[in-house]
């Protein structure tokens, strides 16, 4: 089992002919992903050639997401288009009824993301991102840019605001492995939240324990803590990036700004611990807390 993505997922790439789209299409194929085509209105009717498992594959390029879905049965789209065109690409995929929309692009204007988020309400599409590494179900499928060789399949579910911390945590716990690892993105508005992922992991029988990585700024981690207290029965360990960040200063991700005591790493740690979550001060300490839990299960 997994959440949102598995070996049967049929993936298309919006922006498959661009530099980043081409590079990461090749890497997703290496990870075993079932990529069935791509979208670029200007290059509709052409094909792109990649290799998968040592054999050449010709991937068709379609003019629209709707056409790609009709021809291939695709249910996942990964977006590699420039920030200025990301909103239109998302709306097109949502209108076509794609099941999962993974938006890798960083630098998307928050206003655009807010409009896409609003447009999503009541629709059947789940969006992950923007500004995220996407989602990986190890040894089955990758929709995004997470290096697939870090860790194999296992009992841990991982949800993280940070891409690089997703990779580090997967590496730290590669001896156990993951059911699914999902990077939700660090922007102020994202399509899938910690709470969404926690709910999915709670309902996934193969996920035995959950790692949640947050960062300073906003109140997403505090809200997740309240959700965990009420609804999550599986053990959760947490890490909050930014314990040494100076107050009032924006750090890295656009969402990471501290105001007063709310939004600080310490405040988030206290909220999580009050909900029964063990919180590490470093990624390595967090991984060790998870190991102790898994040994006891």
TrEMBL record:
Iron is among the record's keywords: no
GO molecular function: nucleotide binding; succinate-CoA ligase (ADP-forming) activity; succinate-CoA ligase (GDP-forming) activity
Superkingdom in the source lineage: Bacteria
Name of encoding gene: sucD
Alphabetized PROSITE patterns for the sequence: SUCCINYL_COA_LIG_1, SUCCINYL_COA_LIG_2
Binding-site list for CoA: 17-20, 43, 104-106
UniProt similarity note: Belongs to the succinate/malate CoA ligase alpha subunit family.
Species name: Mumia zhuanghuii
Summary of the function given for this chain in its UniProt record: Succinyl-CoA synthetase functions in the citric acid cycle (TCA), coupling the hydrolysis of succinyl-CoA to the synthesis of either ATP or GTP and thus represents the only step of substrate-level phosphorylation in the TCA. The alpha subunit of the enzyme binds the substrates coenzyme A and phosphate, while succinate binding and nucleotide specificity is provided by the beta subunit.
PANTHER family: SUCCINATE--COA LIGASE [ADP_GDP-FORMING] SUBUNIT ALPHA, MITOCHONDRIAL, SUCCINYL-COA LIGASE SUBUNIT ALPHA
Binding-site residues for substrate, renumbered to this chain: 167
An example Gene Ontology CC term for this record: succinate-CoA ligase complex (ADP-forming)
Descriptive protein name: Succinate--CoA ligase [ADP-forming] subunit alpha
A Pfam cross-reference name: CoA_binding
SMART domains, A to Z: CoA_binding (SM00881)
Complex and partners: Heterotetramer of two alpha and two beta subunits.
SUPFAM superfamilies to which the protein is assigned, alphabetical: NAD(P)-binding Rossmann-fold domains, Succinyl-CoA synthetase domains
Reaction equation(s) it catalyzes: GTP + succinate + CoA = succinyl-CoA + GDP + phosphate; succinate + ATP + CoA = succinyl-CoA + ADP + phosphate
Residue ranges annotated for the CoA-binding domain, each copy included: 4-108
Gene Ontology biological-process annotations: tricarboxylic acid cycle
Pathway(s) of this molecule: Carbohydrate metabolism; tricarboxylic acid cycle; succinate from succinyl-CoA (ligase route): step 1/1
């Amino acid at each position: 089992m997994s959440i949102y993505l598995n070996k049967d997922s049929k993936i298309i790439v919006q922006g498959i002919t661009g530099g980043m789209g081409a590079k990461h299409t090749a890497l997703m194929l290496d990870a075993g992903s079932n990529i069935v085509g791509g979208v670029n209105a200007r290059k509709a009717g052409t094909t792109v050639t990649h290799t998968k498992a040592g054999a050449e594959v010709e991937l068709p390029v379609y003019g629209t997401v709707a056409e790609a879905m009709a021809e291939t049965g695709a249910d996942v789209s990964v977006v590699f288009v420039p920030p200025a065109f990301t909103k239109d690409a998302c709306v097109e995929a949502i209108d076509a009824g794609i099941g999962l929309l993974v938006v890798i692009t960083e630098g998307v204007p928050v206003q655009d993301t807010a409009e896409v988020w609003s447009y999503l309400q009541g629709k059947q599409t789940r969006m992950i991102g923007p500004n995220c590494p996407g989602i990986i179900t190890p040894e089955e499928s990758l929709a995004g840019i997470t290096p697939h060789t870090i860790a194999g399949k296992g009992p841990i579910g991982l949800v993280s605001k940070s891409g690089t911390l997703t990779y580090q945590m997967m590496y730290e716990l590669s001896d156990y492995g993951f059911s699914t690892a999902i990077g939700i993105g660090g922007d102020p508005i994202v399509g899938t939240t910690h709470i969404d992922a926690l709910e999915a992991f709670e309902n996934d029988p193969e996920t035995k324990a959950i790692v949640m990585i947050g960062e300073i700024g906003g109140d997403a981690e505090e809200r997740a803590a309240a959700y965990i207290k009420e609804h999550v029965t599986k053990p959760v360990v947490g890490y909050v990036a930014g314990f040494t960040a100076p107050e009032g200063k924006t750090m890295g991700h656009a969402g990471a700004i501290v105001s007063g005591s709310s939004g600080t790493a310490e405040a988030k740690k206290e909220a999580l611990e009050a909900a029964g979550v063990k919180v590490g001060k470093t990624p390595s300490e967090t991984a060790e807390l998870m190991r102790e839990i898994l040994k006891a299960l």
